[in-house]
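Continuing the batch. This is chain 6 of the set; chains 1 through 5 are on the previous pages. Same settings as before, nothing changed between runs. Recording input and output for traceability.
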Amino acid sequence: MANYALGDIQGCFEEFKAALAKVKFNSKKDFLWLTGDLINRGPDSLELLQYIYEIKDRVHIVLGNHDLHFLACFYSDRRISKKDTLIELFASEDCKTYADFLVNQPLLFLKEIKSKNGVKEIAMVHAGIPPNLNFDQCLKLNSLFQNSLKKDPKKTLKRVFDKSPPIFKANFKKNEKISYFSNALTRIRICKENGNIKYSHKGGLKNLPKNYNAWFNFPSKFLFKNRELIFGHWAALDGKTNLDNVIGLDTGCVWGGKLTIMRLEDNKKYYIKNIKK
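Output for chain 6:
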């Protein structure tokens, strides 16, 4: 049995299949970890979800910003963008099945696995975790979001796409906590040391605004010994963080880059080049 993690697939189903073939993924023995943004912008979102749903008992998923966008369009009448590639998905008779499936996924997932060096805990998010949030806060906020999304997806998703506070405050109301946490974990790239997020930054690590840096370059209140964090979202990094315990997996497949799949037991990475269609 092995655990394999993939960065943002975004509907690149051919590359996804090639990645599974490269590592000889066995859906009866192995597990897949998907860092969010399963769909949109790529050509085959429907086929990707069809496959994932078929093996859903062997898949761990966290929601990304594109997944939330799809859910908001489905449940909350959010407008579809001209850049979206979701027409086939919305036209499918199984669209509701896949939407209901994604509604049950978290923003943060944790699990212990056995590695060559002993047991280690893997945490998975889509974009990152602000340095000012500690472990207990993240667990509570994740549960709050997940329970709210399951209970009332329409209302919860509207909160997600409200203007989000850039920094967490302990006296936030429930709605503010949901808005903040969902945006932070699916959109963060850079912030200040106190956790104040600048969502408008889309580039890499050059020419950053004063006092801002990558969220993972500040001391973390979330990470401890033997806990690793995997994430996607930030294609401009090309997977590079220069840290052993914080690992980026989005290498821009949908933008002409490559799809990364990593075996979590030893962190060995495999790459599949973008297949032009």
